[in-house]
Amino acid sequence: MEEFNVGVVGAGYVGLVTGACLAHVGHRVRCVDKNEARVAELAEGRVPIYEPGLEELVARGRKRLSFSTDLPGAVRDSDVLFIAVDTPPGEGGSADLSSVGAVARSVGRALAEAERERAREKPLVVVNKSTVPVGSGDYVSMLVREGAQEVDGGNVPYRVVSNPEFLREGSAVYDSLFPDRIVLGAEKRDALDTMRALYQPIVEQSFPTQLDPRPRDAVPFVTTDLASAEMIKYAANAFLATKISFINEMAALCELVGADVTNVATGIGLDDRIGARFLNAGIGWGGSCFPKDVAALRAVAREYGHEPALLDATVSVNERQRKAVIQKLQRDLRTLKGKRVALLGLAFKPNTDDLREAPSLEIARLVNSLGARVVGYDPVAGKGAAAMLPDLKVVFDPYEALAGAHAAVVVTEWEEVRSLDPEKAASLMEDPKLLVDGRNVLDPAAALDAGLLYRGFGRG
Ligand code: NAD
Ligand code: UGA
Fold this sequence. Notes:
Blueprint: E1 5-9, H1 13-24, E2 28-32, H2 36-43, H3 54-60, E3 65-68, H4 71-77, E4 80-83, H5 98-117, E5 124-128, H6 136-151, E6 158-162, H7 172-177, E7 182-186, H8 189-204, E8 221-224, H9 226-257, H10 261-269, H11 290-303, H12 309-333, E9 340-344, H13 359-369, E10 373-377, H14 382-388, E11 393-395, H15 398-402, E12 407-410, H16 415-418, H17 422-428, E13 434-437, H18 444-449, E14 453-455
Parallel strand pairs: 1-2, 1-4, 2-3, 4-5, 5-6, 7-8, 9-10, 9-12, 10-11, 12-13, 13-14
Antiparallel strand pairs: 6-7
Helix pairs in contact: 1-3, 4-5, 5-6, 9-11, 9-12, 12-13
Bound molecules: nicotinamide-adenine-dinucleotide and uridine-5'-diphosphate-glucuronic acid.
């Protein structure tokens, strides 16, 4: 395989996983972050985020993986430089590109400075992995050029590639080593050739692993222009969010007509054209990406004078799901004043410590505002949640959360929550022992037998 010198700017969920995986498959990687504390921690071998398998991968890759705050050094020494910084929601929901822009400009300056010392043999491939709206590739290219001009006005050799990321938190290492596809957008063919060579070990799965690869011959490349690659990323997230909102719409109808949405999901999901995944009804989608990416796509649509009716509906169904939790609590508890409500799981999904746009936060605020005391359990994200919500009492044992609770809400389907013992839960809870299963993961019959008042989403 051809070994590359790779720089990854932004050592967060995406950058760190990307860097560790590229080092694991044989490249030399330097991860750069402006957060000095984060870099110092990583340099000592501590991984600042919770992501299964990542700590081990970072430890094993240490010979080929380094961490630094030195962006110019990474630009000078890299063949390929990934931008994997945050693109949070900005004004009116549009993506805030200030981190991406700052990096692009610094890359231009550093490239021009490095060129003064020694001319590069091949252009630097600047790869945008952050999720950005259409046109951002051109924007990055312009800022690199402007940054270079600030130094000496000359032309610097670089290419811009869009390589959107599709990893899921909680299985980020697996998704990066065994992706469904690799999307590459560029205007120049030589940059695509470099990217294909860089990803070859992943495409051929020629690296040591104890993980079970996805059953397929090779990972497909989708090579396209910059704009289409950028659009693919937003379209993928918007489609997945819409799929979840669709099944939540069906769940609401199931409740009215007396059907069970979990059976409906099984029945439609076996159709290959529909597919079984992302049909779990419940409290709806959250996280660092679906909310902000759907918002950014809606903002782009409006910028162009298009009313994104389907995306608007996707969001309003999702907002309704959060309110449905409160309605289910009110229906059986009547008033929430003075009641104790346990939230089982706080992270936006299992196997992550990420609380960005976590449904738990909104539910906790709403329940609290109605006068109930809220106790939250999460095996990993508890401390973070306590720091964000001062009124939330956080415990680290699910049964401690249930003790004395009038109602419990399954918010995040951690294994510890899925495997809850209904008898033990019922023995600890106060009447009416209401269990709102916000993820439809518990067995209604076992819960009812144990004396819990079970309420799922769309389960008849
Ligand atoms: P993150 O907030 O976890 O990490 C971003 C990192 O970039 C931080 O460590 C920050 O300090 C660093 N940074 C910001 N500006 C910098 C600068 N000027 N120089 C150096 N470092 C800088 O973000 P994330 O979750 O990894 O997401 C990164 C991008 O990837 C976003 O655009 C996101 O939409 C996209 N994405 C995220 C996921 C995910 O699951 N988290 C999946 C696919 C795509
Ligand atoms: C999502 C996408 O799945 C990734 O492909 C993408 O790269 C990433 O966003 C991103 O752009 O950041 P992630 O947010 O980590 O990944 O998590 P998901 O597993 O997609 O779950 C998102 C939300 O949807 C969670 O709150 C989850 O609980 C909810 N969800 C998911 C449901 O409510 N029902 C489902 O059937 C599936």
